[in-house]
Amino acid sequence: MEYEASVFQVFPEPQPDGILQLTQDFRADPREGKIDLGVGVFRDDSGATPIMAAVREAEGRLLATRETKAYIGLLGDVAFAEAITDLALGAALAGSDRLANIQTPGGTGALRLGFDLIVSARPEATVWVPGPTWLNHIPLITRAGLKHKVYPYYDAATGAVDFEAMAEAVAAIPAGDVILLHGCCHNPSGADLDLEQWRQIAAMLTSGGVVAFVDMAYQGFGDGPDPDAAGLRTIFSALPEALMSYSCSKSFGLYRERTGLLTVQCETARDRTHALGQMKLLARTSHSMPPDHGAAVVSTILRDDALRADWLAELDGARLRVVSLRSALAEAFGAAGFGDRFDFLKDNKGMFSLLGIGADAVARLRKRYGVYMPASGRINIAGLQAQQVSRLVEAISDCLEMEPVK
Ligand SMILES: Cc1ncc(COP(=O)(O)O)c(C=O)c1O
User: Fold this and answer.
1) Which domains does the chain show, CATH number per domain?
2) Which of 111, 330, 337, 350 is most deeply buried (CB count within 10 A of its CB)?
3) Which of 111, 134, 185 to mutate to test the pocket of ligand 1 (most atoms within 8 A of CB)?
4) 75: left (phi over 0), alpha (psi -120 to 50) or beta
């Protein structure tokens, strides 16, 4: 008898994932001196993505003391949630009885659960995202069943936020819609709001009745853990209702441990209890219980003074590495005759910047020099080793195929 169901014949041919393909192509490239500025993980100056010392120490302690692998609850590790809200929001806001917390599989899991929660509350809401935004934001919003619109954010001419255009668009967002904001170290541009701009945006959202969803994936990589959280804290102080997705992937180097948190600030303590019930239900029908290990590592570190100090010092070292590469790059571009064209690199925050070069130049860089980046020209600064800066600038000069400005 012939099999007639053919359920799985409907899918289109899969398209290669751009960034993963780029990594594979880089690995297969035999040239010495090749440079990978693609995938978004932190690298040290030898090109490694190390396990942080405080993480290793916490893992050792957990290995010695953990007595069970029984499920943790649907909300995950409550001590982890307290430690992260304290780190991100600060003690005053974190102590509120209006916060509903649930541990999630990574920052991505927090975003998805947050969008699912918005769908259950207000399916007609539109989520406003910055132009451009992290490649996974719009697919996450769409898969959850929500509409999205883009608000102007990055100005390629200056390498900074086009605040005037952003503010005009934000002021016009209808009440009940949701705005997605990058807490710090905007991915892909590295262009962040300053505190005064955060205040203005928070005031507009409050008077406009817009719900803010702040994606916090790089705390500590911009100016340090507290300054990086200033915008998030401004939003949570001003708005009665707001969400935060938190990722421990970069700040604790726990990428594969899938460690994240969704925090929902509600208007009242009663709303919080009900929202938490809904969040549990949503989690139960997607991943159910979150993984334990990464969250246990994070809460062990954050609740032990010595481990916390160690972690902060290592995170600061990672941040300073990126800051010094940014300065070195901007200086080398200046010395190569580009004037101030690439000065924005030293003002941008975090691991990413948009070089502002065309896809042709990106392709030439790869072909001639083994320099890999996505066609958008987004670079992961941490992919660079200090001794490669001048070679990279020479390569870019050559591939732009124009006379540098004198
Ligand atoms: C802006 C942004 N949000 C969220 C995430 C999600 O991180 P993860 O799910 O790995 O914790 C990333 C990761 O690259 C990101 O860049």
Assistant:
1) 17-50+318-399 (3.90.1150.10), 71-303 (3.40.640.10)
2) 350
3) 134
4) alpha
CA distance 204 to 201: 5
Residues 6+ apart with CB under 8 A from 100: 263, 264, 265, 266, 272, 275, 276, 279
Q: By the 8 A CB rule, do 162 and 154 touch?
A: yes
Pocket test for ligand 1, best of 104, 108, 135, 251 (most atoms within 8 A of CB): 108
Q: Are 380 and 392 in contact (CB under 8 A)?
A: no
pLDDT at 19: 83
Q: Distance (Å, rounded) from C-alpha 112 to C-alpha 109?
A: 5
359 catalytic per annotation: no
Amino acid at 68: T
| Secondary structure (DSSP) of 46-107 | TS--PPPHHHHHHHHHHHHH----PPP-TT--HHHHHHHHHHHH-HHHHT-TTEEEEEESHH
pLDDT at 404 over 60: no
How many angstroms separate the Cα of 287 from the Cα of each of 75, 89, 129, 348? 12, 26, 26, 36
**Confidence (pTM):** 0.96
Please state, in angstroms and rounded to a whole number, the distance separating the CA atoms of residues 355 and 210.
33
- The arithmetic mean of pLDDT across residues 279-295, rounded, is 97
